[in-house]
Amino acid sequence: QVQLVESGGGLVQPGGSLRLSCAASGFTINSYVMSWYRQTPDKERELVATIARAGGPTNYADSVKGRFTISRDNARNTVYLQMNSLKPDDTAVYYCKAVHFTNLYVYWGRGTQVTVSS
Question: Under DSSP, is residue 117 helix (H, G, I), strand (E, B) or coil?
Answer without folding.
Answer: coil
